[in-house]
Write a structure and sequence with these properties.
Length: about 270
Amino acid sequence: MSFKIFLKKYSKIKRKASKRNNIFLFILKISPVLVIIIALSFSVFAFLSYIAGAPVFIIKDVNVIGAPDIKENIVSYFLGRHQARVSLKTSAAIIRGENPQVKYVDIKRILPDKIIVEVYKKSPVALISISGKTYPVNDSGFVLKQISKDAAKFLPQLTGIEMDNVSIIQNEIVDSKRLRRALSILRNIASHNFLGNHTITGIKIRDFKNPVAFVDGTVPLYFGLNNINNETSMVLKEIFSKIEDIKNIEYVDLRSRNVFVKRKTL
């Protein structure tokens, strides 16, 4: 072996040894930091483990706001569970899923052992008659608790929906094609907001293809299969903009492409 080859191999060995030394020195330098990180990790783990098992975090107090009829079920769902094992988002979804009358649930965690649940219910939008009794329903057709006469007088009455032979209690959804059509008309009217100071006082489903909405209890609004669009909404805004105009209207027909207004003859 020549001297040059020997020097070359010796240089490679020296460089490798130098790299190993540098790595070793680097590890020695950062070892205190690594020790601190590991110690903190164990401390956090121990703390979380304590929280997950500590009896002080067992839920003992559940405050339910806005839903006295389902309060007992909500309290029993949370009571005795550990705070660390309760997901607020999942719990809210479960409460909504089990109670169709609920629109939104806001849950707050108060450590160590308290939960506050605020329930917002769906509002009634109309009244229907079932076996001789009047019930409020929301926009999904869900039968709500009976309300006072003062509150009911502001809701439209839906008629022509065959419900005489239906045995139903509150907290159920009425499965009726005609009811779904009537509720879709109410949503359609509300979305275009053309009534001004006037209100829909009732909807009659004589048959599915010819529903009639009544404005202020006097002016029939014939829908047919057509819903209100932006073009017809502008025409209707002009029609219902003045109270004097509506007194002279016999009916409004939306069953064709153009809005037809039948006025009363003097």
